[in-house]
Amino acid sequence: MGTQFSLGRLKALGSLAALTAVACGGPTINASRDANVPLPAGATWAWGTRDTISRYELDPAVQNPLLHQYVQRAIENSLNAKGFRMVQDPGQAQVLVTYHMGLKRTTEYVTSSTGVGMYGGYGMYGGYGWGVYGAPSYSSSTTRPMEYSEGGVLVIMRDRASNQVAWQGVYRKDVHDVNQVTQESIQMAANDLFQELRP
């Protein structure tokens, strides 16, 4: 199917990232709808086959089968709440749904400095002669790595007959601990994402 997944595309489109339950910042949600592709209210839908795999999807934390189970269940619940009807046979569905889930890890280096001045009887305080600038000071700098992760889920809904994308959405969020994700937190993310779905 024709839409490739990448973090750059996630940033351009925006969508559902349920894997980011315990996170530092709020989510970014974006969605797009092609009005020329049919997406009737109450349409039947089935899971389609993912066509591409991004390197962000290969992160070990994203390969967790339980996490995928949570995401799939959340998407199913949200589509059901929107009036779509799931069928098991893709050949009988009007709409095919796929998703891509990825995690981007980045490292930034933060430098902090500390300084200590020399007084104790010198300079202006002791009259010894350091001048108007006072005593010399000594400083030290420490650089340490800071790890950041951004998770995202791209959801794509295609018209089965034409294989064209009718709707797609992205949910992105900074991730603090992927391992603490729950079904409830993922469902909340899915609900927020599918509020942007307009048949």
Give the percentage of residues in beta strands.
25-35%
H-E order: HEEHEEHEEH
What is the count of β-strands? 6
* Terminal-residue CA separation: 21 Å
Please outline the major beta sheet.
Answer: 6 strands, mixed
Rg: 26 Å
- General shape: elongated
Given as residue ranges, the uncertain stretches (5+ residues, pLDDT < 50) are 1-24, 118-128
Helix content: 10-25%
Number of helices: 4
> Largest beta sheet: what is the strand line-up?
1-6-5-4-2-3
Mean pLDDT: 77
Structural class: alpha/beta
Summary?
By secondary structure, this protein is of the alpha/beta class. It has helices spanning 7-13, 65-81, 123-126, 183-194, and strands at 28-33, 44-47, 85-86, 95-117, 137-159, 164-174.
Give an account of the 3D structure.
The chain is an alpha/beta fold. The chain has four helices and six strands. Strands 1-6-5-4-2-3 form a six-stranded mixed sheet, sandwiched between helices. It starts with 6 loop residues before the first helix and ends in a 5-residue tail after the last helix. Mean pLDDT is 77; it is low at 1-24 and 118-128.
